[in-house]
Amino acid sequence: MEKPMTTETPDLTHLWMPFTANRRFKEAPRLLASAKGMYYTSTDGRQILDGCAGLWCVNAGHCREPIAQAIATQVSTLDYAPSFQMGHPLAFKAATAVAALMPTGMQRIFFTNSGSESVDTALKIALAYHRANGQPQRTRLIGRERGYHGVGFGGISVGGISPNRKAFSNSLLPNVDHLPHTHNLEHNAFSKGQPAWGAHLADELERIVALHDASTIAAVIVEPMAGSTGVLIPPEGYLQRLREITHKHGILLIFDEVITGFGRLGANTASDYFGVTPDILTMAKGISNAAVPAGAVAVNNTLYDTVINAGDNGIELFHGYTYSGHPLAMAAITAALELYQSEHIFDNARTLSPAFEAAAHGMNGLPNVIDVRNLGIVAGVELAPRKDAPGARAAEVFQRCYDAGVLLRYTGDTIAISPPLIISQEQIGTIFDVLGKAISETA
Ligand SMILES: Cc1ncc(COP(=O)(O)O)c(C=O)c1O
């Protein structure tokens, strides 16, 4: 059935929009009315090619029938079931399906509703594990500069994006330290795939360990590939080095795979892609193809056993959400994971990544392009910031692309490209043609 298209602009007064320049947006709103496959339709009736999978989350494309059907059936079968001291079969089935895609030994799944909740859950599980393991003094958390781990107080504390922290700086978690980020244009500009330079930056963890003593450190959390900060690809050997150092000191390693999980790099997870297994892995976004808000945390089986077996027979972890394992999310997850498999969507991402890489690096040489970086079906095109107006150039390029029918993202002066994984080679061409033209036309 054709969906009705809204053409009227609604009253924009009451909605406080997240991570949005509200005043500017409301002066010139960009409103989407419907979506199908690779395209949105805007309220002014234009087809917009989705170059960023919504917010890195619609991996199988929009409004996929099997997922929509599963949700529709579920909402009239079991709309809600309590998640505390009660269960429903689909939550166990969904956990089994998610566990099957996780690295070996990480088959225990805790459900959340978002990436931010997954991160805060992961941090709490890390602390609970050390307590259960007889090391309650291990409470220090190590994040990384430029890391994005959502917007909970835990997430912004270990996160490293300064505007996200600034207004809350007196209220962040105590006992947090940060690794340096790995972005370096002098050494790595225009790297194709993983940059060769920078593995040694993981050794900074040894310095932090020496400063605080390993016995006080609970966990290190990083995005194996950082998306939201503007696409930062880990240098070759960097993640392996982090894993070696964390192992050596009994520190847990958390991979925040909210973006990289479910095919973005052409593998089940970034852990799989890089061959580095963390102790805890956070997910959201693609887990349900974004059709229902959902997230999860995969935990090493031994960690789970340690926490579960530590106490008496009471509640082992005082943590959870009213909507952990929500039936609609479980239906969406189960259907999405089946769809990913039946349509070989992660394979498509892997097969297309060389063409995607070539098209992205076609931006090299255009005016003001100071870097292109890529991995899997993700690319970042960094522009030189305008004097006294950081971000303005990328904002203009973003708007030009939108006006020309391609939706992208920008962070600072980096344009991020991360389309649904069902994209065709022709659509990859369209995205970069439009982007290239927009960059060329922007002073
Ligand atoms: C790596 C990472 N962690 C956490 C989050 C937060 O997810 P959410 O917005 O669903 O809370 C994001 C969102 O982009 C993310 O990229």
TrEMBL record:
Matches recorded under SUPFAM superfamilies: PLP-dependent transferases
InterPro entries linked: Aminotrans_3 (IPR005814), Aminotrans_3_PPA_site (IPR049704), PyrdxlP-dep_Trfase (IPR015424), PyrdxlP-dep_Trfase_major (IPR015421), PyrdxlP-dep_Trfase_small (IPR015422)
Pfam families: Aminotran_3
GO process terms (BP): biotin biosynthetic process
Source domain of life: Bacteria
Cofactor: pyridoxal 5'-phosphate
Gene Ontology MF terms in the entry: adenosylmethionine-8-amino-7-oxononanoate transaminase activity; pyridoxal phosphate binding
Alphabetical UniProt keywords: Aminotransferase, Pyridoxal phosphate, Pyruvate, Transferase
Family, as annotated: Belongs to the class-III pyridoxal-phosphate-dependent aminotransferase family.
Name assigned to this protein: Beta alanine--pyruvate aminotransferase
Organism for this UniProt entry: Advenella kashmirensis W13003
